[in-house]
Model the fold of this input.
Amino acid sequence: MERNKNIAKLREGYLFPEINRRKRKFLENNPNAKIISLGIGNTTEPLKKHITKALVEASTDLGTVEGYSGYGDEQGLTALRDRIAEKLYGGIVSGEEVFTSDGAKCDIGRLQVMFGNDVSVAVQDPSYPVYVDGSVIIGATGEFDDSKKQFGKMTYLPCTPENGFFPDLERCKKTDVIYFCSPNNPTGAVSTKKQLKELIDCARDNKSIIVYDAAYAEYITDKKLPKTIFEIEGARDVALEVNSFSKPLGFTGVRLGWTVVPNELTYDGGEKVIDDWNRVTCTIFNGASNIVQKAALSALDDAGLDEMRKTVGFYMENAAIIRKTLKDVGVEVYGGDNAPYIWARFPGRKSWDVFEEILETANVVTTPGSGFGPAGEGFLRFSSFGHRKDIIEACERLEKNLG
Ligand code: PL4
Done:
C-alpha cells in the first residue's frame, strides 16, 4: 500500500526525539561529557509516600478475588471523575463531564480524530508541537510553506514579548478549532481572566471550539490567574479542557490525564460534543489503568493534595534558580513564575545554533524555540524539571559560559 501522504509532510523528526538524537550524537563524539538536561519537560523526583502507598495497595488488590477488576468504564472510574470535578474544579464542572485517560497528549490525538480533517485550525505560535503535528497527520493543515516555515492551511497566532504573549484574535476569526495552552508551553506565560474572556467571546462570535490545554494549571500560584478556562463566564459554551497529572504529581511515566467536555458545548448543527467524545472514547480507547485511577483518588485527598503542592513547589524553586541565573548574565527571560518553563531570548541568533553552542560549551541540553513554531525562532526553552544538584550545576555552567 502507499504511505499516508500526510506523514510525509511532517517536518524533520518530532521535536523531542530530535533533541535526544542530537544529545546522543554529541555524546558519541564526547563520551566523557556530563550532560545535564533542561530540555524535555520530564519529571525527575520520586513519587511521594502517600501516592506510592496508594499505587502499591491498588496493585495488591488486583491479586485478590475481591479486589480484582478487568476493563473499567472507558470514561473512567466514577469516583475519580467526581473527585477531579470537586477538588480540582471546585464543582464548576460535573464528574460526568470529566473523562479520565492515559494522558493529555493522547487525548489531544483522539480529539483530532474526533474533529476530523475537514476543519480549520489555529494554534498559538510558539506552541506544544502535538497540536500542529497531530493535525498534519490527520490531514488538516495543507502543505508546508518553507518560506514562512509554517503549514498553509493552519492559522498561527504569534505570542511574543511584544504582545504580552497573548495573540491578536482577529487572526483566528475563521477557525473551527483553536488550541490554547495556559500556563503556556513553551513561553511560561499565563493568560489573565480578561484575556480568556476575549478568547471565549471570539470563539462564541465565530462558532469556534477552544481546546484548552491546562496541563500546567497546578503551577499557577498567583491567585488572580485562572487555573481553568471554566472559571470564565461563557466558557462552557465554547471550550473543552485537557489536563494531566503528569507534571503536578510526577505521573509522566505512570500516565493519567483527563478531558472535561461541558454538556453545553455543541457543534453548529446543535449536536453535543460530549456525545461524540463519549463515542470516540468508547471506540478507540479502553480506559485508563485501574491501578493508577484508584491511586489517583488518594492524590486528591488532603494528604495527596499536600504532596502535590510540595512537588510543584520543588520544581518552581528550580525555575526561580534558572530564571535568576539567566537574568544575572543578561539574558532576556520570560515565564518561570507560574509555570515550570523559562523562555529565553537570544536576539539575532537561530535557536538551534544557540542550542548547539550551549550543548558544546556548558554540556546543557535545552529546547530550541523554533521547534515550537516560527515565532519561537531566536528563543530557547529551559525546563525546571531536574534534581536540585543538577539544576545548580547547570546554572553554574551557564553562568560561566553565557556570562
Ligand atoms: C515530551 C502543554 C513536555 N514525549 O503527559 P501528558 O500526555 O499528560 O501531557 C503531555 C503534555 C500535554 N500538554 C502540554 C505539554 O507540555 C505536555 C508535555 N510536554 C514538554 O517538554 O513539552 C513533554 C514532551 C513528550 C511529548 O511529546 O509530550
Remarks:
- The chain has two domains: 7-46+304-402, 69-301.
